[in-house]
Write a structure and sequence with these properties.
By secondary structure, this protein is an all-alpha fold. It has a domain of 55 residues: Arc Repressor Mutant, subunit A (Orthogonal Bundle), CATH 1.10.10. Helix content is 54%, strand content 0%. The chain is built from four helices and no strands.
């Protein structure tokens, strides 16, 4: 089976991808994000692969930094994913 093509850099993030980045930006682990959003760990990892590709990031920390710089994530102090 062929490997799915990664999205091009600059492709807009989906609402779910932003939600996952937001949780990661609040310090949640992949497993915690999965539990919080009722997803499997592998689904979160798949989203993260697409997120880093779309943002042109090297890893999750770089993706979070890019998202904050672009105003994709809420910078309100005190917000926490519950």
């Amino acid at each position: 089976m062929p490997t799915p093509k990664r999205p091009a850099v600059g492709t807009p993030l989906t609402a779910r991808e932003i939600e996952i980045l937001d949780c990661l930006g609040q310090g949640l682990s992949t497993a915690e994000v999965a539990a919080h959003l009722f997803l499997t760990v592998n689904t979160v990892k798949s989203h993260l692969t697409r997120i880093t590709s779309r943002l042109g990031a090297h890893d999750r920390a770089h993706a979070i930094a890019i998202a904050y710089r672009r105003g994709l994530l809420d910078t309100t102090p005190g917000w926490q994913a519950a």
